Every structure is written in structure tokens, then in C-alpha cells.
Amino acid sequence: MANSGIEWINIIFNFCVRLLYDIGSILGISYEEINVWIFVVIWPFLSLIMFGEIIRLRLKLISKKQDF
User: Fold this and answer.
1) pLDDT 10s per residue in the chain (68 long)?
2) Residue 32 is assigned to a structural domain of this protein
3) 13 contacts: CB under 8 Å, gap ≥ 6
């Protein structure tokens, strides 16, 4: 599968690909569909949530600094 020339990267990549194939067989969807769900739907959604949480915490920090 992987052929980056760096052995530990190849091992991790191959493990992740096998894991996605196994999850796909359990869920009844293909490897490509899992990739779409992870990298087009789930990851951006979680990134937006994280971005909103960072903004909320920064605003909270700013308001606490103004109280002193």
C-alpha cells in the first residue's frame, strides 16, 4: 500500500487503511465513502465547532481581563 520510504509512516498508513476497510465492511459502505464522510463531512464540522469554542473562550478571557 504505502511507499513513502519512511517505515513508520508506511506502518501507520497501512494500519489506518486496513481499519477503514474493516469499518466499511461492518457498516456496509466502501473505503471511499468512509473517506468522504470523515474528510468532507465530519472533520469540517468538528473544525467549525472547535473554531466556535476557541472564539467563545477568547471572548470569555477578554471579559475576565476587563473585570480586573
Assistant:
1) 788 899 999 999 999 999 999 999 999 999 999 999 999 999 999 999 999 999 999 999 999 888 77
2) yes
3) 1, 2, 4
Q: Is residue 1 part of a domain?
A: no
Percent of the chain that is helix, strand, coil (3-state, to 5): 85, 0, 15
Amino acid at 22: D
Looking at the domain assignment, is residue 2 inside a domain? no
47 within 8 A of 35, measured Cβ to Cβ? no
Sole residue written with cell 481499519: 19
Q: Which domain holds residue 41?
A: 7-67
Domain membership of residue 21 (yes or no) is yes
